[in-house]
């Protein structure tokens, strides 16, 4: 066999094995999604709350009181945003049918006067075709309506699991992580502990930066809607804030909703101005905030962000798009840390509480003197041979 064929064969079967292992992991995640998604949500939220709890404990707050304050404060903020949005929507939906009819008539006049010169018969024909297509696919909506009860049950179960997971992470996150590290062989524990610390730091940076970016988007689009006189500006801002946690896809969807509201409740030129505000905010986010802030925090190229979001959406829908970037960023940092060999020193990885305990469990041969610098394996092996 030529050397090239042997090399290609060796690479091929190894890549096939790796791909099969990844496929099995993804299959298990999809099958256990009702457990995996709440746990991931709890981990993501805990990356924000753990620093707050640590800050309160350092200022002589009891641990239980600090955890309770963090949990209740988070629930109060989320409940306040939802209540505010629902109240504003209920107040602004009065006379919605009349406004929709007026906007529809105005839109028909604009289309008739435009270069398209669409007549009422043509517009009604297009609407009829859309209604026929919707009726043809009505089985999908009927199935979804029948599964509402099951979906609500899953939602309640997931919410409770998220709260319990978040509570235990805040109370004893260090113990949970040390238990996970002890599952691995002793020689691998320094690498796993250091990679976990690096990944945790990256996850915290991502969560904080994402909240900052989402807040800027919500303020920009919500303020633009208020200035233009678009009703329900506050619900629009809340929707933009929540949608911004899904990179790219969330911004486009929430921006389309803002433009649609402006088209229904205002004139078409207000909708065009609202579209301009949405595009301006998204351009600032895409060309200023994401490269300067998000790129520094997660260290993932914008093209990589687009690809992982698309892959996550294809594999797991909205949850996949939501967790694609943080998972990719954490894996990137952890793999880079392990590959760098920085864990071969004798200093426990920074940021891992109790890491020194795990570090001391690594067996060392007689006469071994671990490197105090982050040297290569060959240097450490050479030092082992010293008398």
UniProtKB/TrEMBL annotation:
Official protein name in the record: AI-2E family transporter
Predominant place of localization: membrane
Ranges of biased composition (kind: Basic and acidic residues): 372-387
Keyword Lipid biosynthesis included in the entry's annotation: no
Residue span of region Disordered: 367-387
Alphabetic keyword roster: Cell membrane, Membrane, Transmembrane, Transmembrane helix, Transport
Transmembrane segments: 12-29, 35-57, 69-91, 155-180, 211-230, 236-261, 268-284, 304-335
